[in-house]
Amino acid sequence: MHGESEISIVKELQKILNQKKEQENKPYWLKKAYSHVNLASKNFQGIWSGWWKSKTPPKLEVDMIFVFEDIGNILDNALMVATEVKFFQEDTKRNFFEGLQQVMAFSLFGFDGLALWHIFSEKIDDSVINSYAQAMQEIIRGYELPIFYLATKLSNEFIFKIFEPAQIEKQEIDYLIAWIGNFCNDENNRNPLLFHDLPLGPHPEEIKKRRNTLKVLLKIPV
User: Fold this and answer.
1) At what angle do helices 173-185 and 6-24 cross, to 10 degrees?
2) Closest CA to 5 of 83, 64, 86
3) Which residues sit opposite 168 in a β-bridge?
4) For 41, 90, 99, 159, which has the most beta carbons within 10 A of its beta carbon?
5) What angle do CA 136, 179, 152 make, to 5 degrees?
6) pLDDT tens readout for residues 2-49
């Protein structure tokens, strides 16, 4: 396998996806894929303070950001999806809910969609993966969280066996990314902080300002 670390896997995923875009334009409505975007960087803080004259929200790094064309043009023509990736090795002591807190925190920055991707080593038994994946999916569905949850086993060739949200033996990365985009494209699955003025919660207009700052950082036309 191309490296047994989370960082190397994310970098390889981005590389393979970019190659598919160049050679096959798959998925066709994906415009850009980023990896390891540090929202604590001086660049982001400079853009933030320059535009809004205030402190940035809590510091975070986003494992992967996918920018799709927003076909519905709900806010504008960009659909930005923040994805937290967690890699489970054979001797992992990680909990089944790893990454949930991070992906929920991403909503504060104004991402349109949110995704949590658990990647399991091919050395882990399917029954173990199923138990992790089902427990995580029960939480997301039980609380009706607007998060796309993906649980996959990774092979040496970077072909994936999918456990959640459906059981599929073999798929390539462009299929999975398109799946994420299709889910987040649904207005009902968008980041609720962008649309709903909740009691004691942040005002949607403030979250939209943060979203505009993200677009500047990612060099997406505002």
Assistant:
1) 90
2) 86
3) 162
4) 99
5) 45
6) 446 899 999 999 999 999 999 999 999 999 999 999 887 767 777 666
